[in-house]
Design a protein that fits this description.
This protein is of the alpha/beta class. The protein has one domain (2-184): P-loop containing nucleotide triphosphate hydrolases (Rossmann fold), CATH 3.40.50. 29% of the residues lie in helices and 20% in strands. The protein is built from six helices and six strands; from the N terminus they run αββαβααβαβαβ. It has helices at residues 2-8, 50-53, 72-76, 78-88, 117-126, 143-161, and strands spanning 21-31, 34-43, 63-68, 99-104, 131-135, 183-184. It has a three-stranded parallel sheet with strand order 3-4-5, sandwiched between helices. Strands 1-2 form a two-stranded antiparallel sheet. It comes from Tabanus bromius.
Length: 196
């Protein structure tokens, strides 16, 4: 539902959980010189689909991991997804791709750690997330902000990697791929060295 809200500005009460993988594309006019094409892969979070869906995020340059603040069991799976993501996807310098944790359904009664923002901040830092947001796909809370934060992190990595500080074989072009948890981001820039 996060991707449907972000890409189509649409929410449905009758949303069904993803079975396998779903895909969406969003084009952003970032600034006068930059167009970003986000490939968003919604990957089933249920364990029974884990082995099948993880292949889809091996080329990701950014990720969201989403949990439901009303169901503690979904939060318990967050660390497994993050560890799996970090073990399978790295930037050319070996560091993990930026991953933002989304505490979805923040418009409803919260359970567990998310009720204490300070503990969430600590959890996010300890586990190598690039940040976290309380979101609501239903009420359109922090959807754009979370996506913008992830794209910013991706672009910062692209500038670092494609600056003159790295050898050519260590550079990367932001192009296709996929992600863990819920969404994957790739970008394409006009007037850049990006070979997308």
């Amino acid at each position: 539902s996060f991707i449907k809200r972000y890409v189509h500005q649409f929410f449905s009460q009758s949303y069904r959980a993803t079975i396998g993988v779903d895909f969406a594309l969003k084009v952003l006019h970032w600034d006068q010189n930059t167009i970003i094409r986000l490939q968003l892969w919604d990957i089933a979070g249920q364990e029974r689909f884990g082995n099948m869906t993880r292949v889809y995020y091996k080329e990701a340059v950014g990720a969201f991991i989403v949990f439901d603040v009303t169901r503690n069991a979904t939060f318990d799976a967050v660390i497994k997804w993050k560890q799996d993501l970090d073990s399978k996807v790295q930037l050319p310098d070996g560091s993990p791709i930026p991953c933002i944790l989304l505490a979805n359904k923040c418009d409803q009664q919260k359970q567990g750690i998310v009720t204490t923002p300070e503990k969430m901040d600590e959890y996010v830092q300890e586990n190598g997330f690039a940040g976290w947001f309380e979101t609501s796909a239903k009420e359109n809370i922090n959807i754009e902000e979370a996506a913008r934060a992830l794209v910013n992190k991706i672009l910062m990595n692209d500038k670092l990697v494609n600056s003159g500080d790295m050898m050519d074989n260590e550079k990367f072009a932001i192009a296709g791929g996929s992600t863990a948890g819920t969404a994957q981001s790739t970008s394409q820039a006009k007037k850049s060295t990006c070979s997308c």
